[in-house]
Every structure is written in C-alpha cells, then in structure tokens.
Design a protein that fits this description.
Blueprint lengths: L3 H13 L2 H8 L3 H15 L4 E4 L2 E4 L1 H27 L5 E7 L1 H6 L1 H11 L3 E7 L5 H6 L5 E7 L10 E16 L14 E4 L5 H12 L5 E5 L3 H9 L5 E4 L9 E17 L6 H13 L3
Parallel strand pairs: 3-4, 3-5, 7-8
Antiparallel strand pairs: 1-2, 5-10, 6-9, 6-10
Helix pairs in contact: 1-3, 1-4, 2-3, 6-10
C-alpha cells in the first residue's frame, strides 16, 4: 500500500524541483524527505527518482505516479468536503491568500460577511504574490487564494487546483499629471517604476513594453502600488497600474492600455463542495465589483 504522505512529498518534488524546497515547505529536514521518498520507492517496487550528481529528477514511473497522486489527493479533498458538509455549522481555520490590491479592495467586505454569517470560522489572511500561491495551496498553507494573471501573460493550468473566475479589470499607464505622454509608445523615453524581478507585475511590464517596441529604462523596483503612484506623482517615472490599484488623484494621469488583469479564486481540486470553501467563494463573488 502506498503511503499518502509520501505520495504528497513526491508530488511536491515534481512542482518545487528540489528536495531542499520540499523539506522547507513541510518543515522537514532534507534527509527526512529523502528517507521518505526512498521508502516510497520501495513500496512502489520501481525506481521513482534518478540521481545525477547532487540533483534528483523523477523517472518516467515517478512522473506517472505523480499524475495518479493528483487524482488521489483530489479524491481525498472531495471526501473531506463531504464529511464537513455532514457536520453542523461551519467551524475551523480557513487560510486565505491574496495579492496586495485584493487585500485592500476585495477581501474586507467578504471577511465582514463571512464573520457575520459564520462566526465560528477562524479566517486568516496572508498576502502573497501570485507566483507563490499554487505551491502554498498544494502544501496546505492556504485553503483559498485570490490570484490573477494578465491576458498578455496568461497563467498555465496548475495541477491539483481549480479556479473560479471573479473579475476582469483594465490596466493603465500611470504618468505624472503634467507629463506629455499620451500612449505607451511615448513612454520609451521615460524612466520606469516596475515590480521586483520574478514577480508577475515585472513580467507584464516587460512584455507590454516589448510589444510596443522598446525595453523600459527601469529606475525603481517597487511592489506596492500605493508607493508606485506616489513616485509617479513625484515625477520619478511612469508605471503600469491595474484598475483596482488606481484610486483617482489629480497629480497622476491614467492612460488606458490594451491589456486586462483577470482575478480568479483558487482552491485545491475536490474542495469546492467543502462548506467553508463554498462560503468563501460565495462571499468573494458577492463582494466583487459588478
């Protein structure tokens, strides 16, 4: 019989890439993870990992087992959801992840609604960049996540996760109120304020500028849109700003761009019928702008 906990470690190795990353995600030592994966290989009766120097990769059998593991874990989520639906009242911890502008705009009213309707739920919010959320959901650090992508940088389908569409919003080029810039192509000569390398906002800015025929001259790396707008207003550069993060202010002019940001509610596959997850989805959809 294959051990589900060990199967989860193998699945996480497929997504995270290294034993050290799996160990960190589960608060284990790398040695403990290696021992558990070796035991799983003995249970399976075939090699699941191939070692090349200090690196490890999944064998074809290991890859096939990961695919079955996704199905097994989704079935377990569905079983937990059905058992939870049979209990009386909603209780327990629900860990919600969200990107910064969603924490400010989408979450507050949803949290108020959930607290009023289900006071026994213990709601915990963590702010994360979208690139971090899939792994946080899979290793159960999150139960629900508000994540986004852009039509110019669409997200890939994530194994073991399901998505519920929430909103789409416009994307703007934010320029100082007195600037002569009227279009994205005009910003080739401007200094730019963009997100940190590795974030989705950084990727989207680079792609949009490249589509306009230039590479942005980056002056500042800032991830908080409130700070970005303050720097734009101070004449320190231009930036891309999504609609949710763009409150009207007289010292910043917003130029619409041919791009859309799309927000989805994510949860582990099989968990949609869990009463607490369903309640979160309902509250978030009710509080989203029309």
């Amino acid at each position: 019989m294959l051990d589900v906990r060990r199967l989860r470690l193998l699945r996480d190795l497929a997504h995270l890439g290294t034993i050290a990353a799996v160990a960190q995600a589960h608060s284990y030592t790398p040695s403990a993870v290696s021992q558990q994966l070796a035991a799983l290989g003995r249970e399976a009766g075939v090699p699941l990992l191939a070692h090349t120097g200090r690196r490890v990769a999944l064998t074809p059998a290991g890859t096939a087992l990961v695919q079955h593991t996704e199905t097994i874990l989704s079935a377990l989520e569905a079983a937990e959801a059905e058992l939870a639906a049979a209990s009386t009242g909603l209780t327990g911890i629900v860990r919600i992840g969200a990107f910064p502008s969603a924490v400010r705009t989408l979450l507050p009213s949803a949290l108020v609604s959930l607290a009023a309707q289900h006071p026994a739920l213990d709601l915990m919010v963590t702010e994360l960049d979208p690139v971090e959320m899939p792994d946080a959901l899979r290793d159960r650090r999150l139960d629900v996540a508000l994540s986004h992508d852009y039509d110019i940088a669409p997200a890939i389908a994530e194994a073991g996760l399901d998505a519920v569409p929430l909103i789409e919003e416009s994307v703007f080029l934010a320029v100082p109120g007195t600037a002569g810039t009227t279009a994205l192509a005009d910003a080739e000569r401007d200094s730019w304020i963009i997100g940190s390398p590795g974030t989705l906002c950084h990727t989207v800015t680079m792609r949009l500028c490249e589509s306009a025929g230039f590479t942005p001259a980056v002056r500042h790396h800032i991830d908080d849109f409130t700070a970005v707008l303050a720097l734009v207003a101070a004449g320190q550069g231009v930036a891309l700003i999504p609609e949710l993060a763009s409150p009207a202010r007289p010292d910043v002019r917003l130029i619409p761009l041919p791009a859309r940001r799309r927000t989805h509610i994510f949860h582990r596959r099989g968990a949609r019928a869990h009463p607490a997850i369903a309640a979160c989805v309902t509250a978030l959809r009710s509080s989203a702008p029309g």
